[in-house]
Write a structure and sequence with these properties.
By secondary structure, the chain is of the alpha+beta class. Helices cover 20% and strands 23% of the residues. It is built from 20 helices and 42 strands. The strands form eleven sheets. It has an eight-stranded antiparallel beta sheet with strand order 27-26-19-24-22-21-25-28, with no helix packed on it.
Length: 924
C-alpha cells in the first residue's frame, strides 16, 4: 500500500511499498490554457499534496493564480459568488473522468476512490472519507468546470492495489449525497495521511511515526466553532472555507474507538461542520436513509400511502434543479452589485423567440444584450427555457437589474420567450416556475401571495410578462403553494378552501428549524425525533406507520413505531435527525381527530441530562392530504404534546406563514417559561419577508440587548445578564426603513451558573414600576438637579452647562438627605471602610453592591438597567476609572431625565458600562 500525503492512508498494520522515484508533471493551476508546470524527481507525495490543495486554492488562492497567468476568466467574487455557485450544486449524479467518460458518482466513482485512497480503514472512517472525496469532486465539477483526473492529480479512481468491496459501497450509500458544509456553504475537504497515533485520544504525539511527513498539516478542531476553528496551511488561513485537514490515520484510530463518521469529521473540521445533502440534489435517494430520500410517495393521493394506482408526488422544494452559471458558459460580470436579503419575487418574459431548443445559448444572448445596456450582468436571477430548464443568472444574494428602482430584495425570474400575444408558455416552463417560486419561498420565507410574488407589470408600467402569463398567475401560485407537486391523479383533490374545517389529519411533518440547542457529542444532526404517535380518547395508542417523505433526514425510520430512545447510548439507532431545512413526514396508522392527543417525542429519558440532551428546534405541522398544512408549533424543543381541539382543525390562509400566534416573529431561543444561565442567545423565525433586522429589548423601554441583520442565522444575537430572576425579552422586527413591523415577547428566568438566583443579584420583578417608589424618585430627581451640598448654594439651576468641582459625592449626599434617604446605614457594612464610604463616590458602590439587604432597608435596590436608559430619580455609581471617571474616587450622579444626570454639576450620561457601573432605584 502506498504512503500518501493527502489521499491514501498509511496504516500501522500494513507495509508500504517503496515509492518509485520518477519525474512527476504537476499542473499548479488548470483554470485555463496557461499552465505552470513543475518537474520533480520526488515520489508522488508532493503531487498528491498539491492536488488535494485544489478546493482551498480555488477559493482562497484564486486571485494570486490569476496574477500568475493561470487563465481563470470567470471573474467571480471569491467570498460570495463562487461559494454561492458551489452551494447551488447541480444534480451531481455523474462526473466526467478523464479517459473514462461519464461515471456515476454514487455507484461507481466514489466506491472506487475510497477503495484506492483509504480502502483498509474501518467503516466509520470510510464514511468520513466518502464525504471528503465527494466534497472534493463537487468542487472540481462546480468551480473548476473540468473533468476529474483519475490519478493523484485529483483522486485515484482506478488503482492496481485495491479492489472495490461491498464495504466501500456501503460507506458511500450510508453518506449518499452528503458534502461538507459550514453555514450551508461548501467547505474545503482537506485530508492527509497524518501520523500513526499512539495515544488513546487519537491525537498524534511527539515521536509518533509519520512516514509521509504530513502530520504538520492536520488540525484538531474538536469543540471549536466559527472563527475559533483553525485552518490548515494547505490553504489560505484567511478564507472561511478553510476548516482544517483530516488525518486518515487518526480517523481510523477514532473509528476503532467507536466514533461515528460525523463526530470524526467534527474532530478535525470543527463542531459546526455539517455533512449535508444539497437541497436540490436529485441523486441522493435510496441510500443512508431507509424509507427516505427525496421522493415523497403517496402524499396528496388520497390513498393509504402505497404507490399502486396513485400519483407519485415529489416534494416541490426539493425538486428544483438549477443549472449553475458554468452550465451555460456564463461570462464574468462587468462589476459587482451590492448584497441583499431576498423578500419578494417578480416574474418577467424576455421578449425573445418562443420554443427555442438551445436554452443555454439563449441565456448567453440575454447576458450579452444586458451587457450592451451596461448592466452588470444578466439582470435576472433565474431564466427558464422552453423545456423547463432553470438557469442561474445573477446570484440570489446579489441585487439584480430587472425592475427600475425596485431591485433590492427583489428576485427576478424570467421565462424565455414572448407571451404578450397569443403564444402561452410551455407546460414545462409553468411547472418549473411554480417549483422555483416554492423553492425560493421556502429558502427565504417569502409568502406565496399576490403581494410578495408579482408580474413585472404589477410593479411598473409595462406589459411584461405578458397576458398569457398573467392570465395563469393565480394557477401558478396555487401550484407553488402545494407542498407536493404530483404527476397523475386528479389535481383537484389537492385543493382546499382556506378556513374550511378539516375532519382529520393523516400526516405529521417535522421540519428542522435550527441546530440549537446543540449537544456536540450527539451522533445526530438537527432536531432529534424518537417517536410520533397519537393517544385516542379510549386510551389506545396509534403509532406512525411509515415514513412518507424524508429528504435530508438521518435515520428516518427510527421515528416510526413506539418510543424506544431510552438511554444516551442508543440514540443513534432509536432516533431520527432532522437538520435545518429538511422535512420528516410520517403517515399515521389511523387519522388524527378532534380530542386526540398528539405526541412528538425526542427521548424517553429526562431531556435535561446535560451529557445527552436532545438537539434541535423544529416546526411541527399536520395535513390530511400532504398539500395544505396546519402549523402547531414553529419552535418545538423537547418532548411535545398537543390535545387537539376545534381550533386545530381549521386552516387559515396565513397559518403556514405566520405560525400559530401570527405576528411574523417566533422565538426559537429562549423558550417561554424556561430557566437560562446568564450567557443568553436569542434567535427568532421571521416569517414576515419585510423583516430585515431584529432588535432585542428587555422589559424596560429601550433596554437594548442587541440587534442582528443576519437572516441566515435566524437573527442570532447574544447578551450576558448581570441580574437574575424573571425577565421579559422582546424581539422587534424592523423593515428596511427601520419601521417596526412585528413584535414578539417571551418570559424566562435567569439564574446563576449553578442554577440559583442569589439574593444580592436578584433583579426587580417584571414591570419594575410596580415596586418603584415613584414619589421618592421624583424627590431625588428634583433635589439632585440642584447640585447642592447640605447648606450650600444651588449650583446647577437651571442645570445646564455646569462643570464639576470634584465634589460629586457631596452633591449626591446632600440630595439623598434632603429626599429622606438614610444612606449612612451603609457605612458600617464593608467591604469599604466608613472613612472611604464618606469620602469617595466609589465607597457608596462598594458597600451598596455588597449589602443588598441593607440597601433595601434604606429604600434602594440595584436594578438591571443600562446607565444610558436609567429613568428619572435613578442613582448611578461608577467604579474607579470606569469609562474615564476618576481613577481613585469614581463618580456618582442622580438622573434628572433620560440621558442627563446631576451631582455637583449636570451633564450627559457618558455611556453604558454594565461591568463597572451600578444603577439604583428607590423602592416601596
Amino acid at each position: 500500500m502506498r504512503s500518501s500525503f493527502a489521499g491514501s492512508v498509511y496504516f500501522v498494520h500494513t507495509q508500504p511499498t517503496v515509492p518509485v522515484a520518477r519525474p512527476v508533471r504537476i499542473h499548479r493551476c488548470d483554470f485555463g490554457a496557461a499552465l505552470t508546470e513543475i518537474d520533480s524527481a520526488e515520489d508522488d507525495t508532493m503531487a498528491r499534496m498539491v492536488m488535494k490543495m485544489w478546493p482551498a486554492m480555488g477559493l482562497a488562492l484564486l486571485a494570486s493564480m490569476v496574477a500568475a497567468g493561470c487563465g481563470f476568466n470567470d471573474g467571480l467574487d471569491l467570498d460570495d459568488t463562487v461559494e454561492v455557485r458551489v452551494q447551488e450544486l447541480s444534480s451531481f449524479c455523474s462526473v466526467q473522468v478523464e479517459g473514462y467518460g461519464a461515471v456515476d458518482v454514487e455507484e461507481d466513482y466514489l466506491p472506487s476512490v475510497i477503495a484506492c485512497e483509504n480502502g483498509n480503514a474501518p467503516m466509520e472512517a470510510l464514511k468520513a472519507q466518502a464525504v471528503a472525496a465527494r466534497t472534493y469532486a463537487a468542487f472540481i465539477v462546480e468551480a473548476e468546470r473540468r473533468p476529474l483526473v483519475p490519478t493523484t492529480r485529483d483522486q485515484v479512481y482506478d488503482c492496481s492495489h485495491a479492489q472495490v468491496e461491498q464495504r466501500h459501497r456501503d460507506a458511500v450509500n450510508a453518506t449518499r449525497g452528503q458534502v461538507l458544509t459550514h453555514n450551508g456553504r461548501l467547505a474545503a475537504a482537506f485530508y492527509v495521511a497524518g501520523a500513526i497515533p499512539s495515544t488513546n485520544s487519537c491525537r498524534a504525539a511527539r515521536g509518533d511515526r509519520d512516514p509521509t511527513g504530513t502530520e504538520k498539516w492536520v488540525t484538531y478542531n474538536q469543540g471549536r466553532t466559527g472563527s475559533g476553528v483553525r485552518g490548515t496551511p494547505l490553504g489560505s488561513l484567511a478564507n472561511p472555507a478553510n476548516r482544517g485537514a483530516k488525518s486518515q490515520n487518526g480517523a481510523a484510530c477514532l473509528a476503532n474507538n467507536g466514533w461515528d463518521y460525523k463526530r470524526i469529521l467534527r474532530f478535525y473540521y470543527g463542531d459546526d461542520i455539517r455533512p449535508m445533502v444539497p437541497p436540490n440534489s436529485q441523486c441522493a435517494e435510496g441510500g443512508g436513509n431507509p424509507g427516505g430520500g427525496d421522493v415523497c410517495s403517496g402524499l396528496s393521493s388520497g390513498g393509504s400511502g402505497n404507490n399502486s394506482g396513485g400519483p407519485s408526488c415529489t416534494d416541490s422544494s426539493q425538486a428544483v434543479q438549477i443549472m449553475p452559471r458554468s452550465a451555460w458558459n456564463a461570462r464574468a460580470p462587468r462589476y459587482n452589485t451590492p448584497s441583499h436579503t431576498p423578500n419578494r419575487i417578480t416574474v418577467h418574459h424576455t421578449v425573445t423567440a418562443n420554443g427555442v431548443a438551445d436554452g443555454a445559448n439563449e441565456v448567453r444572448k440575454i447576458q450579452q444584450m444586458h451587457f450592451n445596456r451596461r448592466f452588470h450582468d444578466v439582470g435576472y436571477h433565474f431564466l427558464i427555457s422552453h423545456d423547463g430548464t432553470i438557469y442561474q443568472g445573477t446570484p440570489e444574494n446579489k441585487v439584480g437589474a430587472h425592475v427600475g428602482n425596485q431591485n433590492t430584495g427583489n428576485l427576478g425570474i424570467s421565462l424565455l420567450g414572448s407571451f404578450h400575444l397569443s403564444t402561452p408558455p410551455s407546460d414545462a416552463q409553468l411547472s418549473s416556475l411554480s417549483r422555483l417560486i416554492r423553492h425560493l419561498s421556502d429558502k427565504y420565507n417569502i409568502p406565496i401571495n399576490r403581494t410578495q410574488v408579482k408580474g413585472h407589470g404589477e410593479r411598473a408600467a409595462t406589459l411584461c410578462p405578458g397576458q398569457q402569463v398573467m392570465s395563469r398567475f393565480d394557477s401558478i401560485l396555487a401550484n407553488a403553494k402545494a407542498d407536493a407537486v404530483c404527476e397523475g391523479g386528479d389535481s383537484s383533490e389537492e385543493e382546499q378552501v382556506d378556513g374550511q374545517d378539516v375532519a382529520s389529519y393523516r400526516y405529521v411533518r417535522v421540519s428542522g428549524v435550527d441546530l440549537a440547542p446543540n449537544n456536540s457529542d450527539s451522533p445526530l444532526d438537527g432536531y432529534e425525533v424518537d417517536a410520533i404517535y397519537v393517544e385516542k380518547a379510549d386510551g389506545t395508542v396509534v403509532n406512525a406507520a411509515r415514513v412518507a417523505c424524508s429528504p435530508g433526514v438521518q435515520n428516518a425510520n427510527a421515528a416510526i413505531g413506539a418510543s424506544d430512545n431510552t438511554s444516551c447510548d442508543n440514540r443513534a439507532q432509536t432516533a431520527a435527525g432532522v437538520p435545518p431545512g429538511a422535512d420528516l413526514i410520517v403517515e399515521l396508522q389511523e387519522p388524527v381527530k378532534k380530542g386526540d392527543v398528539l405526541y412528538v417525542t425526542q427521548a424517553g429519558y429526562p431531556v435535561a441530562l446535560s451529557e445527552c440532551s436532545p438537539n434541535g428546534t423544529a416546526k411541527i405541522s399536520l395535513s390530511n392530504d400532504g398539500s395544505i398544512w396546519k402549523v402547531l408549533d414553529t419552535t418545538a424543543q423537547g418532548n411535545q404534546r398537543w390535545t387537539l381541539g376545534t381550533e386545530h382543525f381549521v386552516y387559515d390562509e396565513d397559518d403556514e406563514a405566520e405560525g400559530p400566534n401570527g405576528g411574523g416573529l417566533e422565538f426559537i431561543v429562549p423558550r417561554a417559561g424556561h430557566w437560562y444561565r446568564p450567557d443568553m442567545t436569542f434567535k427568532v423565525v421571521a416569517s414576515d419577508p419585510r423583516i430585515v433586522k431584529v432588535r432585542y429589548e428587555a422589559e424596560h423601554d429601550n433596554f437594548h440587548l442587541g440587534t442582528s441583520q443576519d437572516r441566515a442565522s435566524n437573527f442570532e444575537e447574544g447578551y450576558t445578564y448581570e441580574f437574575f430572576g424573571e425577565r421579559v425579552i422582546f424581539a422587534i422586527g424592523l423593515d428596511a426603513n427601520g419601521n417596526e413591523v412585528a413584535r414578539r415577547e417571551v418570559r424566562v428566568t435567569i439564574t446563576d451558573f449553578d442554577g440559583t438566583i442569589p439574593e444580592d443579584r436578584r433583579a426587580l420583578p417584571y414591570y419594575p414600576d410596580a415596586n418603584v417608589d415613584s414619589a421618592m424618585a421624583e424627590r431625588l430627581a428634583t433635589e439632585g438637579a440642584k447640585c447642592q451640598e447640605t447648606g450650600g448654594p444651588q449650583r446647577c439651576s437651571p442645570g445646564n452647562n455646569s462643570y464639576s468641582l470634584g465634589r460629586c459625592w457631596a452633591g449626591v449626599k446632600g440630595a439623598l438627605r434632603r429626599a429622606g434617604i438614610n444612606f449612612d446605614k451603609l457605612q458600617g457594612h464593608g467591604p469599604c471602610s466608613a472613612y472611604t464610604f464618606q469620602l469617595s463616590a466609589f465607597g457608596f458602590r462598594c458597600n451598596a453592591d455588597a449589602n443588598p439587604d441593607v440597601l433595601r432597608s434604606i429604600g434602594l435596590q440595584k436594578v438591571d438597567i443600562p446607565t444610558t436608559e436609567a429613568p428619572r430619580g435613578a442613582i448611578i455609581s461608577w467604579n474607579k476609572g470606569c469609562i474615564g471617571y476618576h481613577a481613585v474616587h469614581g463618580h456618582i450622579e442622580i438622573v434628572r431625565e433620560p440621558g442627563i444626570a446631576c451631582s455637583d454639576f449636570c451633564g450627559r450620561i457618558r455611556g453604558n458600562a454594565p461591568h463597572c457601573a451600578s444603577v439604583y432605584m428607590p423602592i416601596n
